[in-house]
Please model this.
Amino acid sequence: MKNLSNFAAAYKIVTMGKEYLTPNYIFESSWEVCNKVGGIYTVLSTRAKTLQDRMKDRIIFIGPDFWKEKESPYFKEDKAMFAEWQWVAKEEGLNVRVGRWAIPGEPVTILVDFMPFFEKKNEIYGWLWEHYQVDSLHAYGDYDEASMFSYAAARVVESYYKHFLDEKQKVVYHVNEWMCGLGALYINHSLPQIGTIFTTHATSIGRSIAGNQKPLYDYLFAYNGDQMAGELNMQSKHSIEKQTALYTDCFTTVSDITAKECVELLDKPVDVVLPNGFDNSFVPKSAAFSQKRKAARKRLCDVANALLGEQFGDDTLIVSTSGRYEFRNKGIDVFVEAMNRLLREKELKKKVLAFIEVPGWVGEPRKDLQERLTSGQQYDTPLEVPQITHWLHNMSHDNVLGMMKYYDMHNRKDDQVKVIFLPCYLDGKDGIVNMTYYDIVLGNDLCVYPSYYEPWGYTPLEAVAFHVPCITTDLAGFGLWANSVFGHYGEIEDGVKVIHRTDYNYSEVADNIKETVAKFSGMNKKQVDACRKQAETLSKKALWSEFIAYYDKAYDIALRKAEARKGKKQK
Model:
């Protein structure tokens, strides 16, 4: 670690003849720093290398310390780093661990134990109401836990700043999602010389409206965010999100479609849209790519053979959907519907093996399936319940299984389309597939993400980065972005098929997916290779090297507001 008394100068960014103010230091906090639970982990962990290459250890991430004394697979502790400050922090009541996030770029990361602050919870919430009118009275579930982490993270920034930095440095504090809003407000109040940025990756109330089967888009103009928060018991989360949007220096979101939500539901236009980029450094190259793709396809076909008792050759069309288990929001329901309709599609030219890769309430991997897989034999009889790879705790109430049962989808021998539910995180240790998601995704021929509510959509971006054509919708930020790049609605020949989706055209979307998969099944090798090449080409336009410029604008806005506050203070 370089001597921190020798502060590096801020890098220079000049855009349209205007020189942006740029930070000497960036602190960024998120519930998902070194905590792999959702898409924000991918946003931060893939962007980190681009910022680290530029900032050289002056980008510092702050996350929750869930591991304590246990070894984390995502974090490498370094007790010598900032050793003196670590003691100072401890004296201030902050239990921190310092080290590096185990991702490309290995940025400096501080994990903080937030549990000690629960005893001050009421005092903190009182301060929050007094200064920012945030309503924490209706808090429940993860609100308290997130708020205490957010407060602890802000205290870490405050302590580090006072120990190492001063007003000569341009400093930005960037927080992600409502879970970190409290901390942004604390910094705004306690260290006004720091520029604050708030990114909402999805509005809490918009997600709730969509998840509660209410039509979001046709009535967006008529919804009142505060009223809906009361109706859906979301008052506290909505309140912290809205007040953070109002009071931080730069309010951002990840797509134009979510920006519209922010105006209507949070009563605050965003300052900048920050689209989610990708780092493709871990996408295998040339020969290694072909080997990994072959290995992924073999593993998926082996699992299918052991489960279904049927052989799947090289010409099998492997299709999948994946993401969080939000049955309607992620379009899992319409995916099952489309696969059911595909069963009777006369234009289908190949056998289809469709995987639903969303983590459910997993009990354990199936022992009977494990035994078949370890035997190395080929089977010609199916197992019982040949639709699922892991037993669930709620088999009789699971949405995917319930819908497949309703449609009598039992993966019979003569069915051209087989649907398999893989209800676990593909972390390489699930007990059945035992390969990571990134090692498996490149084995697909086609990926389908027919989202109803999807502020950005990392899964289709990941798919095209691995040269897999995909189907998505124009209710996903990624789908809208792809259309803007193409200059028209994406077709499968472009590498991404973008389907128009509304509150009410579910059936039309299912038919569109069915027809696109059937069309793809009839393409020859040259046509498929052209689709795959188009998918890869599109993905390169979404690299962080292309999208980081949007962040430069956000940093400039935040720093200029902080500079203006300093100017007023000096007067």
In short: Residues 355 and 362 are 16 Å apart (CA to CA).
